[in-house]
Amino acid sequence: MLAFLLGTLFGAALVLFVIFILVVNPWGPKSPPPPFIDQYRPVELPKELRDFLKTGDDGQGISRWESCHSISVFLHMLFQEHKDTRLLRRWFHKRLQIELNDISTRSAAGRLIQEIRIRDLSLGTKFPRINAIRVENVEMGEDKNVFDKITLLIDMDYTGGFETSIDVTTVFGKKANLSIKLTKLAGLVRFILSRKPYSHWTSSFVSTPELGTEVSSQIQGHQLKRLIPLIKESIRRALQRKHVWPNYKIRYRPLFPNPFLQPSPPLSKFS
Q1: 3-state SS, one letter per residue, for the chain
Q2: Range 2-11 average pLDDT
Q3: pTM of this prediction?
Q4: Domain SMP-LTD: where (predicted)?
Q5: Which of 15, 34, 66, 68 sees the fewest Cβ atoms within 10 Å?
Q6: At residue 138, does pLDDT exceed 70?
Q7: Which of 17-21, 208-212, 254-258 has the lowest mean pLDDT?
Q8: CA distance 185 to 203
Q9: Chain mean pLDDT for the chain
Q10: What are the extents of the domains in the chain?
Q11: What whole-number distance in Å separates Cα of residue 240 and Cα of residue 97?
Q12: C-alpha–C-alpha distance, residues 264 and 99, integer Å
């Protein structure tokens, strides 16, 4: 019995040894180590894009105009899924509140306003439609493969009906309500992506856009129709002052991280 057990163990060990020799081949030539993969290779600009940046023939841009209905469909799908989310509505609410505060402080009527607050907010039913787009200009790095700055021209049209209702409290304690609906906003937008002095983007209208609004106002239950033209003019002036070229604002998110919110390197890095 002992001899049978030892023979079985010896046979199993011999089979495993033969398999090891056939698979590993310890006496054969050693294979070279696996090749090193460069994980951070420099960016290269495809030849097709270089050729595309030479298709402009009217002297107003370095590329031809392109239809962007496919991109508009893609963006509308994203808008459809996110327009009622808390994150997007909170972002719009914050931005709109900042704009309203700026308008009230810069106008003569702002001296009579004690508080201005957004009551209702509707993001509308449509996302801005991109009719066409072209590359106006690019600035390349020293190696001619990295973009330092890209300037795009975008033909944009919006008829989504963005709407908000605002409660205003005057210094006399009177309550007023203002409803504003954006019925149309169309024009040519200059969109810039730049790496200098740090990665950021900007956008502004090339010239005064076509603006259509519906405004209604009342105070203590009484309509104030005579104020509506003044309110529309204030909105137009605010748009002209902050969002028509050469006026623009440097932005980071969501395309780039805010450089002022990035952690600083340790002091040892500067020694």
Answers
A1: CHHHHHHHHHHHHHHHHHHHHHHHCCCCCCCCCCCCCCCCCCCCCCHHHHHHCCCCCCCCCCCCCEECHHHHHHHHHHHHHHCCCHHHHHHHHHHHHHHHHHHHHHCHHHHHEEEEEEEEEECCCCCCEEEEEEEEEEEECCCCCCEEEEEEEEEEEECCCEEEEEEEEECCCCEEEEEEEEEEEEEEEEEEEECCCCCEEEEEECCCCEEEEEEEEEECCEECHHHHHHHHHHHHHHHHHHHECCCCCCECCCCCCCHHHCCCCCHHHHC
A2: 71
A3: 0.74
A4: 58-254
A5: 34
A6: yes
A7: 17-21
A8: 15
A9: 81
A10: 45-258
A11: 18
A12: 32
Q: Which two tokens stand for residue 139?
A: 């600035």
Looking from the CA of 76 toward its CB, the CA atoms found within 13 Å total 15
Contact 122, 164 (CB under 8 A): yes
> Alpha-carbon torsion 245, 249, 254, 255, what sign?
positive
* CA–CA distance, 99 with 239 (Å, rounded to integer): 10
Tokens at 135, concatenated: 């590359």
Cβ atoms within 10 Å of 189's Cβ, excluding its own: 19
